[in-house]
């Protein structure tokens, strides 16, 4: 067999493989291999997937003119060079004279998208761990070894065939002790591990057949166990990496189905689908997924208030593809009606914003992000309140104690950058828990406890800058600790702007206020009257004679008025003409100032600028 010979697949129930048509239903179940590729970000997962797709004849050989990373289909993925959503592809590969069905899932590598990885693993019997030998082990691929294998190059295609062969040898088939015929007689059970909205086609559900078989000739309807709803099937197939219509999916296979599922909320990740001819009580469902904990929260508002409903529909469709995003309705005096959304990190938030723009042409105002805090309310009950929106924070006199989230942070850096990394962690209020030297003291492995609010701002960018891009970071939630938290409110011409309200650690409050005031001064467009930007920081409560006094600090910046030369049209003559024009302009400014009352128009660019600053 010539493994370097490529051809285009046939989009029916047969697949073109090296000029030989292979019917899916003749491949035995013990020749199925379901595996995912996992690694740290930018270690070559998608490049390796490209070579596998080429060498198995699933896609034609890519040239310099072709788009590489074929499984990265989103515009944001191609522009940033990262994988955002897990993608699956089915390959047929001949090994030792036998055809094998390989189902590959390419997963994201950034910590913000770990939810995609966890649900992909549930559909696999094995995983291929990729380590870039030029970068070494990173924080998200820690293992008991450090040295990476140097006998493979996914970029050049060197020895990728050996990787495929070892995958077949080492990854177990979905079932070992039951034949294809026995499986086909069992009641159908399909596991939903992903879903996405396909334009003009509706909701595409990615499933793994865990038991029985799904045949359009015999089964035209499916029941959802968790939703208790009935869906009519009209298409069934595999992903290769395009959607390929087939007539049947057997036990162990990964594929998709299209149905009359209209609502994006109906696709419950982790759901179990079964044939409606069986009683629900006879079906044992698969355990679902636990919803990941949001780390970063931000308000999302339509730039045009009339686009509110369109924004809601866009959010629902995007959340179908990304179940880790949560959103609830909220309103703002400054921005109107919008949504409070929770994300797994700052990159997650920024990618979500870009996808709204790229995929739905929805330009939204994103308020500056915040993290989740807890506070204990004064009183006998000592009630604990969770606060992820600064506007919902109780008044300082009602709060007995604030608590902030503490994360366990794992950092790996070359030894020459260790001092700078250590200094950065200390500046971010980090407490070192352990320090370990790896690879003959060439690499340092740190474990720190760092507040989440310090990690989600500019920590990652500074870490990469200090280490010339070599250091890596991973973190997970540890606990909530007592903290001195204050509320920061920005004012324009004396009026508070609720969309610019933050909860900040007391030690950071003054610096935070100065930076944001300076940033607002740069971002706000000049007006025909002077704008006063104030940051009022109040919140540290001092008890004296049962009265509560507040420490208030005001940071003031001013934006100079944009001067219009109303006398430009005067070409000499009596000076009284110019005086009249100047007096008229002065009166107009007073009217404008009285009418606007500091409610300066703030568009999406201002909030986007603040988001980038954060």
Question: Mind explaining what this structure looks like?
Answer:
The chain has 614 residues and is an alpha+beta fold. It has five domains: 24-170, Rossmann fold, CATH 3.40.50.300; 180-282, Elongation Factor Tu (Ef-tu), domain 3, CATH 2.40.30.10; 296-367, Elongation Factor G (Translational Gtpase), domain 3 (Alpha-Beta Plaits, 2-Layer Sandwich); 373-483, Alpha-Beta Plaits (2-Layer Sandwich), CATH 3.30.70.240; 487-611, Alpha-Beta Plaits (2-Layer Sandwich), CATH 3.30.70.2570. Helix content is 23%, strand content 34%. The chain is built from 13 helices and 31 strands. Helix 11 (509-523) packs antiparallel against helix 13. The strands form eight sheets. The protein has a six-stranded antiparallel beta barrel. Strands 20, 21, 22, 23, 24 and 25 form a six-stranded antiparallel beta sheet that branches. Strands 4-5-3-6 form a four-stranded mixed beta sheet, sandwiched between helices. It is an enzyme of class 3 (hydrolase). Promotes mitochondrial protein synthesis. May act as a fidelity factor of the translation reaction, by catalyzing a one-codon backward translocation of tRNAs on improperly translocated ribosomes. Binds to mitochondrial ribosomes in a GTP-dependent manner.
The name of the CATH topology of the largest domain is: Rossmann fold
Count of individual helical segments: 13
Low-confidence sequence ranges: 1-21, 140-150, 539-555, 589-598
How many whole angstroms does the radius of gyration measure?
A: 29 Å
Give the count of structural domains. 5
Task: Tell me the helix content.
Answer: 10-25%
Largest sheet: 6 strands, antiparallel, barrel
What's the architecture of the largest domain, going by CATH? 3-Layer(aba) Sandwich
- CATH H level, superfamily name of the largest domain: P-loop containing nucleotide triphosphate hydrolases
User: What class would the helix/strand composition place it in?
Assistant: alpha+beta
Which outline best applies?
globular
Measured distance between first and last alpha carbons? 55 Å
Subcellular location: Mitochondrion inner membrane
Keywords: GTP-binding, Hydrolase, Membrane, Mitochondrion, Mitochondrion inner membrane, Nucleotide-binding, Protein biosynthesis
Family: Belongs to the GTP-binding elongation factor family. LepA subfamily. Belongs to the TRAFAC class translation factor GTPase superfamily. Classic translation factor GTPase family. LepA subfamily.
Enzyme class: hydrolase
